[in-house]
Amino acid sequence: MDLDITQGQDADITQAEPLLEKVELNAFLADKIYHAGSPIDHLTQRRSTPVILPKRNGTVQRETDFALYRERNVIEEFFNKLEQFHAIATRYDKLKSTFLAAVQFTSVIILLN
User: Fold this and answer.
1) Which of 17, 53, 67, 89 has its Cα between 20 and 30 A from that of 97?
2) Total structural domains in the chain?
């Protein structure tokens, strides 16, 4: 597992490709925001299956494995538990390294419980 922190105003999608370069995967489960553009093309080139719901108003409607997409709730539940920790939800830490350490430590606590 790899983890990176962006600045508050940066979108998550800016970190998708650099993180995808670091891991081997068979499928990529993601929100609708990742449906367009380069993450999909990057996954297709690597022969990974993108499991992303298409946008209703999107011009390209790709097929989605809904059984696999429903597994995304495990990820959503993890981030929900992570945000229950006040220091993580509010990000009081000014340094990226300190905040990343807090996220990693909190993640270990969640996974151990």
Assistant:
1) 17
2) 2
